[in-house]
Amino acid sequence: MIERRKTQKISVGNVIVGGDEAISIQSMLSAKITDFEANVKQAKKLKKAGCDILRVAISDLNSVKLIPILKEKVKIPIVADIHFNAKLAIESVYAGVDKIRINPGNINHEDIKNISKTCRSLNIPIRIGINSGSLEKKILEKFGSPTSNALFESALENINLLESFDFNNFIVSIKSSCIRTCVESYKMVASKCNYPLHIGITESGTFKTGVIKSAIGIGSLLLDGIGDTIRVSLSDDPKKEIETGISILKSLGLKYGISVISCPTCGRTTIDVMKIAKQLEKELENKYKNIIFKKNIKIAVMGCAVNGHGETRDADFAITGVGNILMIFKDGIMIKKVFQKEIFSELINEINKKINLSNDFVSN
Length: 364
Ligand code: SF4
Prior knowledge:
Helix content: 40-55%
Order of helices and strands: EEEHEHHEHEHEHHEHEHEHEHEHEEEH
CATH class of the largest domain: Alpha Beta
Bound molecules: iron/sulfur cluster
CATH topology of the largest domain: TIM Barrel
Radius of gyration: 23 Å
Distance between the termini: 25 Å
Number of helices: 13
Strand order of the largest sheet: 8-7-6-5-4-3-10-9
C-alpha cells in the first residue's frame, strides 16, 4: 500500500485534487484552436476515455470563446493554458474556466499578481507550471542550465510569490524532459510544501519512448507517495495519454479496476497465452468501461503450472490449460473447464457473479 503525501485539497471544477482524493488524470486538447467543433469532439472522446481534467491552449482572445462551449457541451473541468499574456488568463477566468495554468518563465510578477487577484475573486485555482525549457532568465543565469536545483528554486520563488499575494489556491508542477532532473526536483518541492503536485515528464516523446519515460518518472514519484494529478505527455493521440495514465495508476494499485497479468511464455507453454491475454484485455475493457470499481480484480493468464499455481492462488481469477481446453480458477480453486472459444463469456459470467454479489467491488 502506497502512503500518499498529505496535501491541501484544491477544487478544479467538480474534481478535487490533493488530500486523499483519487489521483486525477489530465490531458490536453490538440485540435486546432480555431476549430471549436473539432475541440469539442476531441474533448468528448477524452472524457469517455477516462480524462478527469482537460487543458486547452488559450493563445488569443478568440480562443477564450472556446471555454464556455467546452463547459457546456462536454462538462469536464477545463484548464486554460496561458503563456506570456495575463489578459488571456483574466478573460479565461471570466469565461468560466476551472483552473489557470501559468508559466512563470514568461509572465512577470505584476501580471501574476493581477491573475491571482482575479482568480481569488472567483475562487479559481492556478497551476504554477515550471518547465525546464522556459525557466526564468535570472535562474538560468545563476545555475547555467535547468538542473533540479534550478527548477526547485523557481518553484519555491513562485510559491512564495503567490503566498505574498495572500493566494494559496494553487497546484505546482516542475517538469523536465530528463526523468532524473524531474523526479529530483519534485521530491525537493514535496519536502518543502503541502500544495498538491501535478506530475509528469514533459516532452517525453513518441508513444513507445514516452510511455516508458512517463512510467518510470511518474511511477517512481507515485511510489514515493508524491503526485496528486498526472499528465502523460506523448507526441500521439491524447487518448493514449489517458490510457497510459490509467495503466500507470492501475499498475501501482492507485486506481481500481480489472487488471490482467500474464506470463511471458516459454518452451513449456501449453496454451496461446499471448492471444488469450490480449483478447481478454479488450473484452474486459469493453465490458466494464463504465463501471467504477472500489477494489481491484486480478486475472492471471498462465501458460503452464510452473508459476501458474502461485499466480492462480494470488489472483481473483486465473486461466490456464492445455491446447484448446482451458480451466478457470477462482480464488485458487478450479471451477470450470471450457473450450477456448467459450473462455471470455464464461469468465465474464464469473466476474459478474463476483461483483454483483458484493458492492465492495463497484459503486452504485
Ligand atoms: S508460467 Fe509456465 S509457460 Fe509461462 S513463462 Fe512460466 S514456465 Fe513458461
